[in-house]
């Protein structure tokens, strides 16, 4: 799983590298991930609708679609953008590492009105006190992030609580009801003033848990 994560991270971030000729991309790795998710969900999606859902400008979306196409992840037709076999494989590998993303109600731990949880498989050993995840979420535009770790059959919040069930019962119940957790799994909850920033914050925080040389 660790090798899969490292390879996926390098692959996704390679889409952001400057290419010549062509403009430097003004989108982030989260736009790449979200675009694949939207295309996989819809089957095919037009560039205009994709731009609207990603909240990116036409130029950025055009460059993003071009990159996805050049990497063999999508095909573009009159119906819109669709995943290729390679695109479906990459998306399946991504989902094996990040199996679920959920919009959550507010709890006693919520930092803002909108909260998105992202499940990450088998990376509990990468969490220290959750500060790196919080900082990454803030850089991505969120208010912050809370990191839950499932170890020894217990849900904890490193640096905050060894027993989430006792100390934060509402948040604990949400996580246990929404996510099917295995030993050493992590759930990162990003909070923000809107859903997109909360989602970006959650993924930014989760991205720090994947081994690589850096985060873009």
> How would the global form be characterised?
elongated
Question: How much is the average pLDDT?
Answer: 88
Per DSSP E runs of 2 or more residues, the count of β-strands stands at: 7
Architecture of the largest domain in CATH?
A: 2-Layer Sandwich
* Unreliable residue runs: none
Question: What's the quaternary structure here?
Answer: single chain
CA radius of gyration: 17 Å
The helical percent reads: 40-55%
Task: Describe the model.
The mean pLDDT is 88. Helices cover 45% and strands 18% of the residues. It is α+β, with helices and mostly antiparallel strands and 216 residues long. It contains nine helices and seven strands; from the N terminus they run ααααββαββαββααβα. It has two domains: 2-95, Arc Repressor Mutant, subunit A (Orthogonal Bundle), CATH 1.10.10; 99-207, GAD-like domain (Gyrase A, domain 2). Helix 6 (131-139) crosses helix 9. The chain is elongated. The two termini are 21 Å apart. It has helices at 2-14, 29-42, 47-54, 58-70, 85-97, 131-139, 164-167, 169-178, 195-207, and strands at residues 74-77, 80-83, 101-104, 114-120, 144-151, 154-156, 185-192. The strands form two sheets. A five-stranded antiparallel beta sheet has the order 3-4-7-5-6.
